[in-house]
Amino acid sequence: MKMSLKVLLQLVGGIGMLIYGIKVMGDSLQNLAGDRLRRLIAKLTGTPVKGVLVGTAVTTIIQSSSATTVMTVSFVHAGLMTLYQAFGVIMGANIGTTVTAQIMAFKITDLAYISVAIGAFVFLLAKNKRQREIGAGLAGFGVLFIGMHMMGDAMSFLKERQDLFMPFRYHPLWAVLAGTAVTMVIQSSSATVGLTMAMAAQGFMPLNVAIAFIMGDNIGTTITAVLASLGANRSAKQAATCHVMFNVMGTLILLPFLPWYSEFISHTSSDISRQVANAHTLFNVGNTLLFLPFTRPFVNLVRRVVPDDGMVKVYGAAFLDRNLITASPAAALDALKKEMVRMARFAKSMLEGCRAAIVNGSDLEAREVLNTEKIVNELTHEIVAYGTLIGQKGLSEDLSFILNSCINGVGDIERMGDHATNLVEMYEYMRDHNLKFSDQGIREFEEMFSLVHQAVAMSIEALDREDLDLANQVMALEDRVDEMEKRLRARHIDRLNHGKCSPGAGVVFIDILSNLERVGDHAHNLACVVMDLAKVRG
Prior knowledge:
Layout: H1 3-33, H2 35-43, H3 48-62, H4 65-77, H5 83-96, H6 98-104, H7 109-125, H8 129-156, H9 166-170, H10 172-186, H11 189-201, H12 207-220, H13 222-229, H14 234-254, H15 258-266, H16 272-291, H17 295-305, H18 322-327, H19 329-360, H20 363-391, H21 397-432, H22 439-465, H23 468-497, H24 503-537
Helix pairs in contact: 1-8, 1-11, 3-5, 4-5, 4-13, 4-14, 5-14, 5-16, 6-16, 7-8, 8-11, 10-12, 11-12, 11-16, 12-14, 12-15, 12-16, 13-14, 14-16, 14-17, 15-16, 19-20, 19-21, 19-22, 20-21, 21-24, 22-23, 22-24, 23-24
Protein name: Na/Pi-cotransporter II-related protein
Pfam families: Na_Pi_cotrans, PhoU
Membrane topology: Multi-pass membrane protein
């Protein structure tokens, strides 16, 4: 085998081990953190500064800025985070990913083998999932450094080819473009930084070229967020654009000052690998400090580049992003719940259309109810399918409990829509047979409808806000709905017996009361979903 081929295979193998080690370690840490990551991102990103801190912390934990930004883009798509909040997290993700470079700058290859051995034994002898994740994380940590060592050995054979990077020394923009291209291809900014550190350590990549290379790496890593935003809504595309523009603008600002920046970095350590890591860290921290005071103007600029489309999506799901299932199943459940709320509001609008049709004799409202039923049915299928995909991710017991409760809630919302359709059919029957309710019958229908509508509206708001007090109020309303249905049924039968209402209209009235009472039951069940959420989330 020729030496050049052997070197190439060793280099490629080293890159592969580095990427694999980072992924295994990051996945293990993410699984150990569990739902806490979702809560950290969702609850603590109210200001840009908090967003930066959260983005830094999360990326440090999961060892992947791409995973953090994809998660953030998905959060924006799902309506769980605003673009303003997302930009803070994206800036923090850029800082968090530099921790990986700082770790890789350590020379601990011998300890890496021990880490792999210990991790493998812990994984094989583990008695529970947590122990397996700890073992996998230790093994991944070791594999990361073994990959770095393999790359370094491969690079040692290229010392005599220092001329390879001479053009980049005088044309740093080419180095930026090369770093961008490499990261786009291997889909790992940390691997590109590791490769750069290995080349610099062997002495054939000058520091200024290495710094330009990692500046390009910062741009190349944005491709993951861009790909994640394809097929997503306009807000998600804006979030991905934030990432691209932030990294490109930061690079363009620093590039003219590269000679002075390289000189400064050279004094931060005697080890060139550490110098590269320091350059990566200081560049991203400095870029964040530069843009942080101008977060709102920057976000407004992004909205000019990628304008809001001004369209409200009606058909199909608005918040279900499949990228979120892989990035964070817990966050995907939040998106599912948000879509449930949207679906429930469609069902509520159907009930309101039924009232207008029955009270005002509106054929237009009746047709609108039937059109909205198609939306509700489509959302039912999409939400259940999305929930099935989430369930395939090996959820914790708590998340499985929430998922099952939410899917049951989707069934209740669909049944609300079905009962609204039944009410429209009753209206059409009365219209076609020229049947009318008495004035007393209309008043009693409005009384019953008002109470049921209140229960439905409150159950939806309780679900949206996860408000336990509001859910308890819905429970109390259910008893009132049941009591009212019995009372109005008795009154109506009395009117029938005294000839104050036609038999045909009387039968329809009883059916309407029955359907409204069942809608109240489903509102009660939706409130139970809120209680299930409270049990798990406290």
